[in-house]
Every structure is written in C-alpha cells, then in structure tokens.
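Write out the 3D structure for:
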Amino acid sequence: MPFSTSPGAAGRKVPLRDCGHALRMSTFLHPKHFTLNQARTKLMAILPLVKELASLKKTLNEKGFDAYRHTYFGGSGPNGERFYPKELERLVEIVKMFSDDGIQVKGLDRGLIDFPHVRQSGEEVYLCFQLGEDDILFWHSIDDGFAGRRSIDDL
C-alpha cells in the first residue's frame, strides 16, 4: 500500500507516508483503509454475509418491518411482542461485524458495501461493491457516492 495511516479516531489527523517520500499530515474520515487487494480478499471472505444481509432485509420487508427505523409499518412496538425479530438481530450483528472491520454498509437491499481506500494522490475514496457484480469493479469519491462510481481501472 503506497500510503499508510496510524490507527486513530475518524477525522483525526494522522501521519501519511508515501513509500519514502516526505511525511505529511492528512485528515481522513475513516481510521482504517484497504488496498484493492486487501478489499478483494476480504470481499471473498464476507460475500456469504453480504448475501445474508440482503436476504434478511428482504425477509424483514415481507414481514412489514422497517429495518432502518426498527419498527413495523403502522404497528406499535418493535413487533407487537416487545421483541425485535430474530432476522433484525442477525442483520444488526452482521452490520456491526462489518463496521468493526472498517467496512461501510451502504445498502441492505442491494448488498452495497464500501471499503475505505486512499488513492496514490492521498484522496480518501471508497472501493465499491454490490451484489450481482463479480468483483470490486468500481470506486467513488466520498462526496460523489454511488452515483459517481468510476471504473476501478481509473483508480
């Protein structure tokens, strides 16, 4: 990886080194970054969990449960029984595992995830994947989001 950061809180200034070039300071949104190879390796390991996330979200939708607000549509209480559905508990467990590992879950329905990455220019971006794609084929700037996806060849 041409750039590396020290562990630290998001938004904290961290040292950035460029393979022997001068040390400089940069502010990143994320404390952990993946190289393209690291993200691809991690994706292969977690792909079954990404598929499970989308499946769990579909099941919750079919039950009329809003996973984003943790409530049934028009219902009272989490599910009328004072307990959250087991599918939601599992979904939250997976999202937490991803988050703890530095992976950003951006869309439950589509299995859309982002891996924070630092380009050689020092720009913090996302390596982007969604279910149905064979690999990490796209990246985008943090500000542009999914709509600004570009080919990984242009990274």
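Confidence is low (pLDDT under 50) at residues 1-25.
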